Amino acid sequence: MAHDASTSISILDRLAALDTSTVSDALDFLHLKGATYGLRPLWPNCPKIVGRASTVKVGPKTDSSSTAHPFTRVIDAITTPDRILVISSGLEGISCWGDIISNAAKARGIRGTVIDGMCRDIDGSREVAYPVYGRDVTMISGRSRLVQLAAGSPVQMRGVTVREGDYVIADICGTVFVPAERVAEVVDLGERIERRESLMVEDVRAGKPVSEVMHDAKFQAIHAETLSVAASATASHSSKLNVKTASAEDQELVKLFAGLDAPAVSDALDKLGIPGQAFGIMPLANYKKVTVGPAFTVRYVPATDPPGSVGDFIDDVAAGDVVVIDNAGRTDCTVWGDIMTQYAGLRGIAGTVIDGVCRDVNLAINEEYPLFSAGRWMRTGKDRVQVGGVNEAIGVGKVHVKPRDIVVADANGVVIVPRDRVREVAEVARGIEESEARIREMTSDGATIAEARKALGYHTLQRRS
């Protein structure tokens, strides 16, 4: 989304009226990354800052040549009054910011600096009221130890990708980054959240019992309104990319697995005698969340001469779908890379499962895009494989997968639930999960594990009836 100067000023003013906690909540509802942990104000009563990112990446100096001080060229090049320097890749214990450069930035009209690293001479920054946020302070100079590697390029800040021109808000609670193309949605949502929570504060101050004001129903009302707005914002963003929306039935089936994980669903499949565990298909990273969605199936075959398409199918995948790719278990060439990862994320695709290998994994890991495969390798599949079919029955990890079957995947692996058995599987999985939760409660209350397992029938939970 492009912004002219007047729009940018208006958005900045509205963003400045919020705090980082509210903006973090808005990002959560929109399923966007941006909130960070550990980038805090580095001097007492450091002012809040709100602006747009000018990104810089630093790194270790590897030679003895004479170089300009990092950031000097970036500071001299800034011509607008809305900029915050966002510096990544600082070294532990080594300063990449100090009082002289704070004075230079202040004179240039820069609003502040956020460092994924260390700062020294912090009193000098405080004396000129120049805000600095970062990991910590140190006395060790970065001279002859750090150099500027890039400016104006995307940088990683505590696991968040920040691009030139993205929005920044930092206060006593920490630092949050907002993608420039989504800032209007985030601010709109943040203002709604703030209004609802302000009403709750007013009720408490007016003498209403806190048990009534902070009742679950109150939070559910906030969540219901916010989710509605977030859904509209997400739909609006998706429409610009011509993204297909999930059907009502798909959404209903996915919700059945809320609170369940792959092991619970695997046990339910065993109990019902349904083969569904995808053998050898593992997560790219140790994901904390569970990915659930209908399968959009893709079958790859060896390339013809001339070779056919390798990835255009993604334009037909609905938001919330999981792309499930059958590449016959091939590990000699890939069928998924960083371009597909980025595009899938923009389109709201839930994740990707590959009976084969992927490459360009750094982007998927940094963006936390759920990717499950038989491994990773660097050789391209272009001119080696091509799409042989989409939305047809395929095999993945020795499991038969039909289009729109439900995929459940997490750090433990991938399971496929036949669409016509989804409700039955979810119900059994929930029963197993509740029994195991009760076993944990009993052992916490003093029961032996043998007693708890016997009482809840642990050894037969997944056994086929």
UniProtKB/TrEMBL annotation:
Transmembrane segments: none
Gene3D superfamilies the UniProt entry points to: Ribonuclease E inhibitor RraA/RraA-like (3.50.30.40)
Matching InterPro entries: RraA/RraA-like, RraA/RraA-like_sf
Pfam short name (any one): RraA-like
PANTHER family: 4-HYDROXY-4-METHYL-2-OXOGLUTARATE ALDOLASE 3-RELATED
Full protein name: Ribonuclease E inhibitor RraA/Dimethylmenaquinone methyltransferase
Organism of provenance: Aspergillus pseudoustus
